[in-house]
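[Amino acid chain]
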Amino acid sequence: MAKNKEIRINVTLECTNCANNSQKSSRGISRYITQKNRRNTPNRLELNKFCPYCVGHTVHKEIKK
């Protein structure tokens, strides 16, 4: 009997502002781990989260592991 893929999966969200910063003036890249429902959100997840390196709320996008 085959098992189905889990509906809820863990995803990693990464700050787009820190990741695309060409000057590398920030000390690091902000990352959050959260869960998403694969059926309800089949596309990549984007949330506004607080980035301690940018010192403000920025868009965090889902990245591949």
